[in-house]
Amino acid sequence: MKKAILIAMFAAMTLGVKAGDWGKQPVYEPKEVIEECVDLGASISAGYMTDYIFYGRRLARDSVWTDLNYTFDTAIPINVGAWYLNGIGPGPVDELDLYASAEVFSAGALSASLGYVHYFVPESNGATNSYGEIGLDIAIALGFVDLAAETNYALSFGWYHQVGIEKSFALTDAASLVLGTGIGYSDNYFAQGTGLSDNSGWNHYYISASLPIELNCRTVVTPYIGYNGSPDGFVTDGSQGMSGDDQSDILHGGVSISVSF
Fold first, then answer.
1. Is the separation of the CB atoms in 254 and 46 below 8 Å?
2. Are 229 and 252 in contact, with CB atoms under 8 Å apart?
């Protein structure tokens, strides 16, 4: 499911008291007011990617995308948003995703979110250009690494599951190196319009490295690089996405910018 980066930093505004000469009234001098970067729950992001890879399948080459979402700070936080991509390279691909998710559980190192995404792919050359998907995301902070697992059901045709780990290394006060790896499993997810006869099994594996850089308390720029692998016998091995390209051994990258307000 789509996710977006939200950053909030809060500073306190205080009043200082300075004593004057003995026997005189104290002199009150306000300290310099520190600007507060109050997070109102909204975020807008945009980016470029050399390859649009969806659940291990490359659907387009050069692509640009944008995302707008808002989180309602209720007893159960609810995030709603829209994500749009345009494949400007071989493809072509236009995709609009409307999504909503709720954080249904959060305790200590464990959190879980339940959500729904509706995909609109008008230029799809398959039998399905609009469908809905229900998903469950689980995140566990293990200390030495962070584990993320997801299971998704595309209504009426199949399941997709993925598990991965991430480790973040602080480089400076404003930049971190994030390394990740994981593997996906398809249970008939890509049966519609792909021509894949054997559509259940290990789907792909991935390796990624990103460098989120905090420009200020609201803005983060994140360049990244990744590798998508599909060995012999994996579901996406030998298949072709909308770009008409093979799905194995894809080295890709991109950059994004996210602003919270």
1. no
2. no
In sequence order, what are the residues at sequence separation of 6 or more whose Cβ sits closer than 8 angstroms to the Cβ of residue 18? 26, 27, 28, 29
What radius of gyration, in Å, describes the C-alpha atoms of the chain? Answer: 22
Q: Where are the domains of the chain?
A: 15-260
Q: Give percent of the chain with pLDDT exceeding 70.
A: 76
SS3 176: strand
Residues in the chain: 261
Say if domain 15-260 classifies as CATH 2.40.160.40. yes
Q: What is the DSSP letter of 26?
A: P
pLDDT at 3 over 90: no
Query: Averaged over 42-56, what is the pLDDT?
Result: 95
The tokens for 210 are 């990103």
The secondary structure of residue 159, as a DSSP letter, is: E
